[in-house]
Structures are given as structure tokens and as C-alpha cells.
Amino acid sequence: MKWKAINMPSQEGKIAIVTGSNTGTGYHIAYGLASKGASVIMACRNNEKAEQAKLNILKDIPHANIVIEHLDLSDLESISNFTKSIKNQYDKIDILVNNAGVMVPPQSITTDGFELQFGTNHIGHFALSGLLLPLLESAENARVITMSSIAHNSGVIDFEDLQSNQKRYSKWGSYSQSKLANLIFAIEFNRRLKSNNSSVTSLASHPGWSATDLQRHSLLFRFLNLIFGMAPVKGAAPCLYAATMDDAPNYPYWGVTKIGEMHGWTGRAKINNKANDESTALRLWDVSCELSRVSYLN
Ligand SMILES: NC(=O)c1ccc[n+]([C@@H]2O[C@H](COP(=O)([O-])OP(=O)(O)OC[C@H]3O[C@@H](n4cnc5c(N)ncnc54)[C@H](OP(=O)(O)O)[C@@H]3O)[C@@H](O)[C@H]2O)c1
Predict the structure, then answer these.
(1) pTM score
(2) Tens of pLDDT along 38-53?
(3) What domains does the chain contain, in order, with CATH numbers?
(4) What is the position in ligand 1's atom list of the atom closest to the CA of 148?
(5) Is 216 helix (H, G, I), strand (E, B) or coil?
(6) Does the beta carbon of 222 lie inside 6 Å of ligand 1?
(7) 18 contacts 33 by C-beta, under 8 angstroms
């Protein structure tokens, strides 16, 4: 469907958190929500970059209501400090966008010893969503949107070696695993919310192939960005659709729909059967509670 951020309804009175919003799709998600009147909390790990991004948004939208809060998703203590600070300042959150991500870095671990991609992209957002759940439940019909990827199709949740400790590190394998985990989480979170009669809805989205800083660790992909990459503002649209449109909760996963879902307008994205497998989802939920030390909706 030919839908753009400008078609979003007013977001006046809403409070939104967007992780990793200093650049890439997150920047355009924050921009889009602010342009429609939402108060936006930019949850970023680098204050300097976040300040510059905020200034850029304010240049175009001088009345935008934007604040920056420090959040490093590769550090459980930072996530806990972030949520404490949010709870001290706000009594509800209407929109949480789990957008931040890393792709194919050299093998490395988070502060808590998790493989960086699984730890940041999945475990960090799992913990954040759980800790913010009381504030989300205080809003009227809050939504949580988690960013997945077409890479989820090649993902495998390797329960025997989630952190790539035992087998040889595959940077693409770990990225795909984390993006499959993001989609499984979004679907399973929604299932648990609904069976608890929660007013909160959890959905997922993906931005096709957007030319952003995500490809910073791959020279080849940085070059291919020039040929195949779409403007990140277009990649942000499915997430904004999922976060704000009335009919979005009727379908779990929104993306772009042309050329193998790499480009095009927003629509219903294809969900690999692996992401709908309930036994994998149950096991991943349990492991994620254990690793993040944040237990919810059990
Ligand atoms: N671009 C694509 O084609 C594509 C395709 C499919 C899915 N996605 C997904 O879309 C999301 C956004 O990616 P993007 O393309 O916009 O990439 P990007 O331009 O690299 O932006 C990623 C954002 O995440 C932040 N981030 C990384 N690690 C973090 C951490 N530990 N704590 C807090 N923030 C952290 C980055 O902060 P810094 O600037 O400080 O590094 C940046 O703000 C990701 O989840 C990605 O997997 C992107």
C-alpha cells in the first residue's frame, strides 16, 4: 500500500521510546513520531551522536518534543538504570520501538558475556521490554514494535550454543539467529500479553534493505548499499505503520514487500515457519528470562 509517515494519525499525547535512534531507521522512526506530536525519548548509547540527531530533527520540526536518555543494550546494568530513570520521569509509555541493532561485527561479547549480536539485538530488548511492561500497561493500548529482518529466514536458534562459544563463530549465523529471535520474541510476547488480557500489543517490522550504518562492519555490503540500499526513511515506514495504524495489530509482522522484501511500500511481511514454532518460542522465552535475569509473563 502506498503509505508514508505523513499518513500517520496524530500522536499528540503519546510518549514513545525509540532505541538506537541517533541514525539509520531509528532516526527516521523518531523523526516520524515527533512530526506527528509524540514526545520521543531517544534511547541511545552515544550521547554526542544523539545530541546531533536531536538537533537535526529540531531543525526541521522546531516544536518537536525530544529528550535523550542513555541506554547501552549490551549492558544489563545500563538497561536497568535506563528503566529506573524512565520510571522516575514518566507514568506511562505508549510506544516502545526495539530498533537498535548490530550486524556482523568481529566476534565480541557484551558486558555480561553474551555474543554481541544475540546479546544486544535480542537479550537487551527482551530485558528492556520486560522492565518497561508496567509503564506500557499504564498507557491505553500501548504497542511494542521489535525490528526483525529478512535475515530471520536463514536464522537457526542454536540452543546448544547460543553464544557461539563452542562452534566456530559465524558472524552472519549469529546475526540471523538474533533476528529470528527478535521475530519469535515479538510473536510470543503478543501471545502472552493476550492470554493475560493485557492492553499492550507486540508486533514486529523490518526495513527491507536500507542503506544505513548497519553495514559498517562489511566493506562489501557498504559498497552494495550504493546499488541496492533504499533510503532509510522508507525502511522506517513499516515500523511506523505497525506502531500507529489502527489495523496493524491484525497482523504480526510488517515490512516492505517488493524484490524479495528488500524494497517497496509497506505491507504484510512473510513470516518463516521457524518464527511461528511454539516450542522454540517457549524455550527461547525461558532461556531469555534466565540470561537477562528479567522474568515476566511466565
Ligand atoms: N539496514 C537494513 O537494511 C536492515 C535490514 C534488516 C533489519 N535491520 C534492522 O534495523 C535496525 C536498525 O538498523 P539500521 O539499519 O538503522 O542500523 P544503524 O544505522 O547501524 O543503526 C543502529 C542503531 O543501533 C544503535 N546501537 C547499536 N548497538 C547498541 C547498543 N549496544 N545500545 C544501544 N544502541 C545500540 C546504534 O548506535 P551507534 O550509532 O552508537 O552505533 C544505532 O543508533 C536493526 O535492528 C537492524 O538489525 C536493518
Answers:
(1) 0.98
(2) 999 999 999 999 999 9
(3) 12-292 (3.40.50.720)
(4) 7
(5) helix
(6) no
(7) yes
